[in-house]
Design a protein that fits this description.
The complex is a heterotrimer of chains A (270), B (161) and C (828).
Chain A: E1 7-10, H1 14-24, E2 28-31, H2 37-42, E3 50-53, E4 63-66, E5 69-73, H3 78-83, H4 85-90, H5 92-100, H6 104-109, H7 112-118, H8 124-132, E6 135-140, E7 143-148, H9 149-152, E8 153-155, E9 158-159, E10 166-173, E11 180-185, E12 195-200, E13 203-207, E14 214-215, H10 217-224, H11 229-233, H12 250-269
Helix pairs in contact in A: 5-8
Chain B: E1 2-7, E2 10-15, H1 22-29, E3 48-51, E4 54-57, E5 70-72, H2 85-92, H3 102-115, H4 121-127, H5 139-151
Parallel strand pairs in B: 1-5
Antiparallel strand pairs in B: 1-2, 3-4, 3-5
Helix pairs in contact in B: 2-5
Chain C: H1 66-70, E1 89-95, E2 101-107, H2 109-113, E3 117-122, E4 151-152, E5 158-164, H3 167-173, E6 178-183, H4 190-195, E7 208-212, E8 228-239, E9 248-253, E10 259-262, H5 268-279, E11 286-289, H6 305-317, E12 321-324, H7 327-333, E13 337-348, E14 354-366, H8 376-381, E15 391-400, H9 414-432, H10 436-443, E16 452-453, E17 459-460, H11 465-476, H12 478-491, E18 495-505, E19 518-525, E20 531-535, H13 544-556, E21 563-566, H14 584-611, E22 618-621, E23 626-629, E24 632-638, E25 648-655, E26 663-673, E27 679-689, H15 696-715, E28 747-749, H16 768-784, H17 799-812
Parallel strand pairs in C: 1-12, 10-11, 14-15, 20-21, 27-28
Antiparallel strand pairs in C: 1-5, 2-4, 2-6, 3-5, 7-15, 8-13, 9-10, 9-12, 13-14, 16-17, 18-26, 19-20, 19-25, 22-23, 23-24, 26-27
Classes of the chains: A alpha+beta (270), B alpha+beta (161), C alpha+beta (828).
Chain lengths: 270, 161, 828
């Protein structure tokens, strides 16, 4: 299957990309690694008339330290993120999450910016960002705004990213030595998570337990209040409304959320 | 639109539709038909090639996205008549039957060994999680990749020359 | 418990050299030595000429065909470049998005205006093409139009075609064809089909397509005398063959009015016959050329409606046409496999003796009955398997539903028999609390050298089922596994160990209603010292180029790299049985060997004339590929030179006395995470005895591939429809196609019990791995949680199913999971 026809433009800078977005409006989509967008276009689930390729926008690449945060350019490929010494040291949960995405070929192309903008609640990086309490830098005609992970995802494949904005960078707390736990439940290794759980720094995020990566707030409170991993995890599914599909019904998903949360907490607590 | 890239060491310049997938460019414009299309969902890896030395699924890369880069296909791996170490290992270990997944599998394996020259069996299996095979049950494919690694002389994947 | 035969996990083939000339084997003969150790049939080892040389038969010869697959890649139908196809246009199907509906209108006007569109055709345009009916015993009202006209009966059914100048244009244009559907209730599942409230074919008056055996006459007293009777209804679920190469075709009509079609297939001659029927033309008007085929697994036999429409369009347009389906189309419109519901009832004594077994099958045919609709006859034939069960009966009903048609899929009817029986054995073993290995040993037929006739009419040629069981158990370290299992149970580990067994016998190389199985081969030696073989088989990964060359080389003394194999071109090879049912080596290979031997005899006559000697005084020196006068090596003439004046070729037909019956035992070891239900397949240890092995490298490859597909059905793969007949697993992202991370490396133990049915001593290996692995893995998963009260889990044993079974067993204290008919123990 192949995409419907479109015009292809190459942005030379972030500002240029924003100009092109402004010019083409709703007809245009930004193209990063293309491994969320192109599969949808090949299935004709998306048919933008204009693609604006960000491959030449060097200001969107690179990983650096900024005080107590790591700043990751939106065009950072999953493979780079997984291998980055800075990230493995300062936010190892994120590096680990990047290493779980798809398969090696997909990781060579997919980017963190593209993955977050795509906002699949079953994906690894959205869940990881929420668990880390990170944020995203959105650039638009009015300038840069920073949005916390908790506020960025609004629904299935929906974020607060405006049609005239681009996701420029991702910020996560740099906390070397901070323990973490990550659980991804799949049928096959390169599947999206049937359910996922990530725990670090008192936060617990779940994948595929609703339209966005959700925080297991009740479990977090219990854990903060001194509950054991098992006790806290019993509350992991509270407030969640997971979907049903051929892999899992609601009850099983909620059960998995509890099991995976417990395992993530146990891993975090060593 | 005009796209300039290098394929198996040769510079190319072609006029292509923006939506032309790299796999179709290789197959239809260049007659390099080793890479195959096996699915619609970037799952099966039969289309795997190296892009600047990294394994990618060419069904999910626009030709335009490869502008200025180097593509290596199975046809470009060996040296004239001789097989590359990975190709030779696949033959030696009977790592192919119908052959449809094979070029993609070989490219993925080549890319894998370039990044991890001495993988464990588990790492080989995980490294090939994006390449499906229906015939071999993966058993001999894994043996082939481990044999190529043990032989120690892995084809350089960076330049694709 | 074990009889302690000393054997390592892998018994290597021995190269045995004997001076005996090959015995003549006209038919089944008693007296062939059988044992658990490997024996090489004496026919394969011969002293040659003055010195001795070891035959390459039985050795691990690397495939001669590999280099091109590894470099330029195979040339599959989509890759074919041929001047006859210059200017080809491209065909795309519009398919039904709804499972059951009347077509009330088709508007192609927008599509006709789209860029590059050459033509759009609908069912009305192909009204002159005949309908495709099912096999003879199927209700003949259940027929399929090549393009649906008034009714669509499954999601994916072809409704219209768009033909474009370039491929990309076609994907755009099909979206512009507008079809109006008036929905009808969808018949999904056996209950709805049998109820018959909604009929797929009004004229048929029923949804029952065929019946096998006599359900109405089942014996009420079948289970008399049993201490214990267990019954359960289980699923042998629908799976997708999903070869890596989807279906395609390239077709062009010549000025002579003949069609040349390139189609990936499993037998060009059968494809030609099927296409001829579907086009309403004489087979002589069609030439099928078979490019490389990227896997088939039973689903590329004959020709599908799409192939017929493509060929028709090429004639209609007077232009070559090419078609290639997407994976989505492949997963919904290539025939599916399996799809049986089975009610198994087994009864016996508490000492482990099985006394009676009943198998009641419901077969889903899908919307239009194809070969899958009649496979239950093979399931019934193999119902008793390798066991000596005194009383057994089996019957089946095939129904149509609004789903993809069912075809053959690796094993084709026999995996279903073994899966049912091996589940029954385990259910019985669990009920009487006897180790499942012991129950099998108690009931397996003892070794036999004379062909053994079963009550179901199968004539097993040779078998040593107990040795297969013991060899597999020893190779697996069964006792140690049980100890490990016990330790984990005692500790209450989250990750429990499961050990599953399957003993099987299966039927390969069966003939059909036209007579006993045969295959032809033509061997020709050329003056330049090369040779060509024409075969009626049709390799698609099995390595016939190498294997048949080995056989010819062994006779003719011509090196492998000088031998070329041809197949799949019906102008060149008008007759042939193709490759399927694991027939190729035992019939096609035997034909190659036979033709080579006969060619030597033809050569002997010519050599005698040339050397002015009596033919009886000549020996053929294989090493030199030359005839020489006995005692005077200088007086010799090369075989190839005998082709100079007159072609030197022989066409020979090998006729087998009947089908052969390979057998084996699989042991699967799984770990099950009892908290999540996830299954980890850790080991699969197998004995797959298909007689003498020609090339261990190739045979192992077949076993590996078969084991992987069999295991995949047990714990991973499943085609799923919703209640409206919408397919939910129509991509490789949704259909859990097995990847390398889900399976381990396999452990193959070797055992070779020859057959006397062909001089190679060979039975068929291609499907055996699949047949054994599925029940072994399923039984292992259930075994892993048996201590928690679980008696059965349907396939695939997904995490959801495993978890649900554990929950249900916990709640009901040993009862069955929801939705299953309960197991029943009764005292007779």
């Amino acid at each position: 299957m192949i995409p419907a026809p479109f015009d292809y433009l190459t942005a030379t800078s972030a500002a240029h990309a924003l100009d092109l977005l402004g010019e083409h409006g709703e007809d245009a989509k930004l193209l990063a690694g293309g491994h969320s967008l192109l599969p949808m276009m090949k299935l004709r689930l998306a048919a933008p008339e204009v693609l604006i390729d960000l491959r030449r926008v060097t200001e969107l690449s690179g990983i650096s330290s900024d005080g107590d945060e790591l700043v990751i350019g939106a065009m950072t490929r999953h493979a780079e993120l997984a291998a980055s010494a800075l990230v493995r040291d300062g936010a190892p949960l994120l590096a680990h999450a990047a290493a779980q995405v798809g398969d090696p070929q997909i990781r060579h192309r997919g980017t963190i910016g593209g993955s977050l903008a795509h906002a699949d609640p079953a994906a690894d990086l959205p869940m990881a960002l929420v668990a880390l309490g990170g944020s995203v830098e959105l650039r638009g005609p009015a300038g840069i705004r920073t949005v916390a992970a908790d506020d960025f995802f609004t629904g299935y494949f929906e974020t607060v990213l405006g049609p005239d904005e681009l996701l420029a960078a991702v910020r996560v707390p740099s906390a070397p030595g901070q323990p973490w736990g990550y659980q991804k439940f799949t049928r096959r290794a390169n599947d999206w998570a049937i359910v996922g759980a990530a725990a670090t720094g008192g936060r617990i995020a779940l994948a595929n337990m609703g339209p966005v990566p959700v925080r297991a707030l009740a479990a977090e409170r219990a854990a903060a209040g001194g509950a054991s991993a098992a006790e806290a995890a019993q509350l992991a599914a509270e407030g969640t409304s997971p979907g049903e599909d051929i892999h899992a019904d609601r009850a099983f998903r909620q059960h998995l959320a509890r099991v995976l949360t417990r395992r993530a907490l146990e891993h975090e607590r060593g | 639109m005009q796209v300039n890239l290098t394929v198996n060491g040769k510079p190319r310049s072609d006029d292509v539709e923006p939506r032309l997938l790299l796999v179709h460019y290789l197959r239809e414009h260049l007659g390099l038909r080793a890479a195959n299309v096996g699915c619609d969902t970037t799952s099966c890896g039969a289309c795997t090639v190296l892009l600047d030395g990294k394994s990618v699924k060419s069904c999910t890369v626009l030709t335009a996205q490869a502008a200025g880069q180097e593509v290596t296909t199975a046809e470009g791996l060996g040296d004239g008549d001789s097989l590359s170490p990975v190709q030779a290992a696949f033959r030696q270990e009977h790592g192919l039957q119908c052959g449809f997944c094979t070029p993609g599998m070989v490219m993925a394996a080549t890319g894998l060994l370039a990044e991890n020259p001495h993988p464990t069996e588990t790492q080989v299996r995980e490294g090939l999680e994006g390449n499906f095979c229906r015939c071999t049950g993966y058993h001999n494919i894994v043996r082939a990749v481990l044999a190529a690694a043990a032989a120690g002389s892995v084809e350089s994947a960076e330049a694709g020359q | 418990m074990l009889t302690g035969r000393a054997a390592g996990p892998k018994l290597l083939y021995q190269e045995v050299i004997t001076a005996e000339p090959p015995p003549v084997l006209p038919g089944p003969q008693p007296g062939t030595t059988i044992g658990h150790r490997v024996t090489i049939c004496a026919t394969l080892r011969r002293l040659r000429g003055a010195g001795s040389s070891v035959s390459i038969l039985g050795t691990r010869v690397l495939r001669t065909e590999d280099p091109r697959f590894l470099t330029t890649g195979g040339v599959y139908t989509e890759d074919v470049v041929d001047e006859r196809l210059a200017g080809a246009c491209h065909l795309f199907f519009v398919r039904s998005p709804i499972a059951h509906a009347r077509i009330t209108g088709i508007d192609v006007s927008a599509a006709l205006e789209a860029p590059g569109v050459v033509a759009v055709f609908t069912g009305a345009d192909v009204a002159d093409l005949p309908s495709r009916k099912g096999p003879a015993m199927i209700n003949q009202e259940m027929a399929q139009r090549p393009l649906a006209t008034d009714t669509v009966r499954f999601v994916g059914e072809p409704v219209a075609v768009v033909v474009t100048a370039e491929p990309y244009q076609g994907e755009d244009a099909i979206e512009l064809v507008s079809v109006d559907y008036d929905p009808l209730p969808a018949v999904v599942g056996f209950e709805a089909a049998m109820a018959g409230e909604v009929l797929l074919f009004e004229a048929a008056g029923t949804n029952v397509a065929a019946e096998f055996g006599k359900r109405g006459e089942q014996q009420a007293d079948l289970f008399d005398g049993c201490d214990v009777v267990v019954t359960r209804t289980i699923a042998n679920q629908r799976v997708a063959p999903a070869p890596m190469e989807t279906r395609s075709a390239a077709a062009v009509w010549g000025e002579d009015g003949r069609l040349t079609a390139w189609i990936p297939n499993q037998g060009a001659q059968g494809t030609r016959a099927s296409l001829a029927r579907q086009l309403g033309v004489d087979a002589a008007q069609i030439r099928i050329i078979t490019p490389d085929v990227g896997g088939a697994f039973g689903a590329k036999f004959g020709a599908d409606p799409e192939h017929a429409v493509a060929a028709w369009a090429a004639r209609e347009l007077g232009r070559p046409v090419r078609w290639s389906e997407t994976r989505f189309e492949n997963l919904i419109a290539m025939t599916h496999g399996r799809a049986q519901e089975q009610t198994i009832t087994i009864g016996g004594k508490r000492d482990g003796t099985v006394l009676a077994y009943r198998l009641d099958i419901l077969q889903d045919a899908g919307a239009y009955p194809r070969i899958g609709a009649i496979l239950p006859s093979l399931t019934i034939l193999m119902a008793p398997g390798p066991y000596a069960i005194p009383r057994a009966e089996a019957f089946a009903s095939t129904v149509v539903t609004n789903t993809t048609p069912i075809g053959a899929y690796r094993g084709a009817g026999r995996p279903e028999a073994t899966a049912a029986l091996e589940r029954a054995i385990d259910l019985f073993a669990a009920e009487i609390e006897v180790d499942p290995a012991q129950v099998r040993r108690t009931n397996l037929l003892p070794p036999f050298t004379e062909p053994h006739q079963t009550a179901f009419g199968a004539l097993y040629d040779s078998g040593d089922y107990v040795a297969a069981l013991d060899t597999a158990l020893t190779a697996a370290g069964y006792d140690e596994l049980r100890r490990e299992q016990a330790a984990r149970r005692a500790r209450g580990d989250t990750l429990q160990l499961g050990i599953g067994l399957a003993s099987y016998v299966e039927i390969t190389g069966d003939g059909d209603e036209s007579g006993p199985p045969t295959e032809n081969a033509t061997v020709e030696v050329h003056p330049d010292g090369t040779a060509t073989i024409l075969t009626g088989t049709s390799p698609h990964g099995q390595g016939h180029e190498t294997a048949w060359a080995m056989l010819a080389s062994d006779e003719l003394g011509i090196p492998l790299d000088k031998i070329t194999l041809k197949w799949g071109d019906t102008d060149l090879i008008p007759q042939g049985g193709g490759t399927g049912g694991s027939r190729s080596l035992q019939q096609g290979g035997a034909a190659v060997q036979q033709a080579s031997q006969e060619l030597i005899e033809v050569g002997r006559g010519r050599a005698a004339a040339e050397l002015e000697a009596s033919p009886a005084d000549l020996i053929f020196d294989v090493e030199r590929s030359a005839f020489a006068v006995t005692g005077d090596p200088e007086a010799s003439v090369p075989l190839a030179s005998l082709a100079a004046a007159e072609r030197l070729l022989v066409r020979s037909v090998f006729s087998a006395p009947g089908a052969t019956y390979p057998f084996g035992t699989h042991v699967a070891v799984v770990e099950v995470d009892t908290e999540t239900g996830k299954v980890f397949l850790r080991r699969v240890v197998t004995v797959d005895d298909a007689g003498v092995v020609l090339n261990p490298l190739l045979a192992e490859g077949q076993r590996h591939g078969g084991i992987a597909q069999g295991a995949a059905q047990a714990f991973l793969e499943e085609v799923v429809y919703d209640a409206d007949g919408n397919p939910l697993t129509a991509s490789f992202a949704d259909y859990p196609f097995l990847s390398a991370t889900e399976v381990p490396s396999f452990e193959l133990a070797d055992m070779a019990t020859p057959t006397t049915y062909n001089p190679l001593g060979a039975k068929g290996i291609g499907e055996a791995g699949t047949i054994g692995a599925t029940p072994a893995v399923q039984n292992a998963v259930i075994d892993a949680v048996a201590h928690l009260g679980v008696r059965h889990i349907d396939m695939p044993t997904s995490p959801q199913r495993v978890w649900a079974a554990v929950q249900a067993a916990a709640q009901e204290a040993g009862g069955p999971p929801d939705g299953q008919r309960p197991s029943r123990s009764e005292n007779a």
